[in-house]
Amino acid sequence: MTKEKVPARQDFDQLNRDWFIDKAVQVLVFLGGISAIVFIIGIFVFISREGLGFIFGDFSFTEFFGSPNWRPTSESNPTYGILALVAGTASVTGLAMLVAIPFSLGAAIYIAEFASGKKREFLKVTVELLAAIPSVVWGFIGLAIMNPIIIQTFNVPVGLNVLNAGVILGLMAAPIMTSIAEDALKAVPDRYREAAEAMGATRWQVIYKVVLPAAKNGLLGAVLLGVGRGFGETMAVLMATGHSINIPTSVFDSVRALTATIAAELGETAVGSPHYEALFTIGIFLFVITFIINLSADLIVRGVRKG
Amino acid sequence: MFEASSLNRKNLRNERLVKASLGLMTGLLILPVVLILSTLLYKGGPVISFEFLFASPTNGMTTGGIFPALLGTILLVLVALIASVPLGVAAAIYLSEYAPDNWFTRAINLAIINLAGVPSIVHALFGVGAFVIFFKFGTSILAASLTLAIMTLPVVIVATRESLQAVPQAFREACWNMGATRWQTIRRVVLPNAVTGILTGVILEVSRTSGETAPIMFTGAAFFLPLLPQGVLDQTMALSLHLFVVSTQVPDMPEELPYGVALVLISIVLIMNSLSIALRMYLRGRKKW
Amino acid sequence: MVAVVEPTAVNKLEVDRLTIRYGDHVALEDVSFEVRENEVFGIIGPANSGKTSFLKTINRMDMFDSNMSFEGAIRFNGVDVSRVRNVYGLRRRIGVVFPLPVGLPLSIYDNVALAPRLAGQKNRAELDILVERCLRRAALWDEVKDRLHSLGSMLSGGQQQRLTIARALSQEPELLMLDEFSIAVDPVTTMRIEDVLRELKKEITIILVTNLVQQARRLADRTAFFLEGRCLDVAPTEELFTGTVSDPRTRDYVEGRFG
């Protein structure tokens, strides 16, 4: 800038290279943004595409959901009832939640409300690392370590059962549930705690009467996400549940989960066969269930952050 | 004068009890895993050696090494990264810098959460239906990597978006007021400050991708291949699948071998995750504003 | 309010029946006046009178607030700002200084060199000259000349405010808008910057929004008084203080009876 007047320019209104680049970037990132929606819809479309043949062919609603007889390879009378498989998934997930929920909640409360400074950092890091252990490693642990322990401790012939997979799944789901629950507890504003403490409540009373009720949405969300994880787990349950397709009557029964069934049998089906398509139909069922669980968890958790 | 009343003492005792039991619960959560990991180390440690890592399996995989599986995992991870990182960063930029606060954006966020929550076997089914069959890639590294990429896309998106949103809005407004376009502002001020966050996301994705088994089982990974893959349309072995194979599919497997494989796999995952945690802590110390 | 447009002077900015809304709330209603070239145009008035909203509309920063809308016209160099195709070009010609000091997380040098670089300037020697000139004018050069590569975002608040001014000057704008710039700056530096503004007005046009009535008296050629979303007076500054005013509230405000 010199000491002369800065000239008034009408020519500032030009569409230049920067303007075009900006618009191009806008389009590109938008495409990136909608990619998630495209992929989710794509997943549903492609698994439906392969499973549709079954749905409009041999599928019978009552048999599929009501019959425990999953015998797709029978030559005379193949049946496609998934009730036993659902029972397998449900029993393992149920036991896992029974194990995980109290411990996750306890750990979350401890980390959020009682631990501080370095101890807290250490615990959070540990929990995060635990959550990272891959499913197949957990399955291996169920096979190699839990299996003999169960056989010896309970004096049963087979250690690959609901108990094994349930405990393993519980240990898998717990770190994630702990993280989310801890976030929910931390989200409760300090002034709630301060108000209660000012009235003379002990720490535990503050937690029990004030923090937990305030965080209940987030905690519920954590549980739902744990359930979702349990439903969707594949390798760990494949390796730890044994291979019996039946409705379990005790935790020592071997079962088969929905996810494990697909993993175990898909490799042996012919593309386009009814068995193949039936497996894809199970996939559709799993997709829908976990979609609903995730949707509910998100709605519940977001309800907390908005309010 | 201010002696604790009996009620106070009872309360304090309760509190100590509660704190102790909660601490115990936390410990019980962590302890079994620590024990398990030590067992892995104890039984698998002796198996690990230079040959183990760099030789091929022999004798029906009961002896020898895991090199093809290790290589395969590296290839799968690399291709998955190439596919998912640009897309994930673009999506995160859109969500952080452009997306208005409306139902459509909420739908995108919901899709991301679901993408992360879909069971891994369903991802595998999708991979088969879409990449192996529809796009005719056949069972290949390409199909498996793309399946993995879609599955771990949320990891990159979330990590990148968080690091972008950590940049104060005041910086953007200052640039806009000067006539900078949105892209110029992102390129010169926002993105450079988000790079470490993006890196964290990438490392996390590597960790997740290396451990996944189901999505690659039917899309490109094979139990055993005599030759190393030559291109992306070939099948490959993979470390995670190899663990499944040696622990369930091979008769007469010596007991320690699967422990060794498990140890290698879990080491890779834990090292990657520790790296990302360390990176986050380093970031926190190095403030730029 | 009658718009007075002198046909012989060149108008940098023409405001024609401008109304600004945030949703249903009216921030500024039916405002009309002109800002002439090479003058310092002051805008005074209490908080929430619409002054900042007015500035935002001029360089179309309202586009980033989905809640904000306006009617009427603002013409910059005769061009209607709502019909501009390349809004970035518009913003480049207009420099703004808001009361919030912002040091970008770049080196001090890069902070001031950003605008010219965006405009295409690559020559290092010319950038050096420009950076020094702008930092001197912002009364910051002496304090930072030995550490131009240190982070602008780590300076003190007052230094960051001067850095903001330097950045605005680095655009070589035709119109410089300052919104209560002295809030974050100490009185001595305020005086130095006021001297700079007095010199600058020979080259550019300046809009000075200020809550310091005396500052307007010192610097502004003409001044507008905004109250609760309306422009009650536009007149040569001295007239607001000593002459006749259209609205008695103007005199009340100027004499400190409220604010």
What does it look like?
The complex is a heterotrimer of chains A (307), B (289) and C (259). In chain A, strands 1-2 form a two-stranded antiparallel ribbon. Chain A is an all-alpha fold and 307 residues long. Chain A contains twelve helices and two strands; from the N terminus they run ααββαααααααααα. Chain A folds into two domains: 19-71, no CATH class; 84-306, Orthogonal Bundle (MetI-like fold). The longest helix of chain A is centred in the first third of the chain and has 39 residues, at 17-55. With 289 residues, chain B is mostly helical. Chain B has one domain (51-285): MetI-like fold (Orthogonal Bundle). In chain B, strands 1-2 form a two-stranded antiparallel sheet. In chain B, a hairpin with a 4-residue loop joins strand 1 and strand 2 (63-64). In chain B, helix 3 crosses helix 6. Chain B starts with 5 loop residues before the first helix and ends with a helix. Chain B has twelve helices and two strands. By secondary structure, chain C is of the alpha/beta class. Chain C has a single domain, classed as P-loop containing nucleotide triphosphate hydrolases (Rossmann fold). In chain C, the strands form two sheets. Chain C has a six-stranded mixed sheet with strand order 6-7-8-3-9-10, sandwiched between helices. Chain C has a four-stranded antiparallel sheet with strand order 2-1-4-5, with helices on one face. Chain C is globular. The two termini of chain C are 22 Å apart. The model of chain C has no long low-confidence stretch (mean pLDDT 90). Chains in contact: A-B, A-C, B-C. The interface between A and B is large, with 86 and 88 residues.
| Broad CATH class of chain B | Mainly Alpha
Say how many strands of chain C there are: 10
Q: Specify the biggest β-sheet of chain C.
A: 6 strands, mixed
List the chains of the largest interface with their residue counts. A-B, 86 and 88 residues
Summed up, the helix count of chain C is: 10
Low-confidence stretches of chain C: none
Helix-strand layout with pairing:
The complex is a heterotrimer of chains A (307), B (289) and C (259).
Chain A: H1 17-55, H2 61-66, E1 70-71, E2 79-80, H3 83-114, H4 117-131, H5 135-154, H6 162-186, H7 190-198, H8 203-214, H9 216-232, H10 235-240, H11 258-265, H12 274-306
Antiparallel strand pairs in A: 1-2
Chain B: H1 6-44, H2 50-54, E1 57-58, E2 63-64, H3 67-98, H4 103-117, H5 120-134, H6 141-165, H7 169-177, H8 182-190, H9 195-211, H10 214-217, H11 239-248, H12 256-285
Antiparallel strand pairs in B: 1-2
Chain C: E1 11-22, E2 25-36, E3 40-44, H1 51-58, E4 68-76, E5 79-80, H2 87-93, E6 94-97, H3 108-118, H4 124-137, H5 141-144, H6 157-170, E7 175-179, H7 187-200, E8 205-209, H8 213-219, E9 222-227, E10 230-236, H9 237-242, H10 248-254
Parallel strand pairs in C: 3-8, 3-9, 6-7, 7-8
Antiparallel strand pairs in C: 1-2, 1-4, 4-5, 9-10
Helix pairs in contact in C: 3-4, 3-6, 4-6
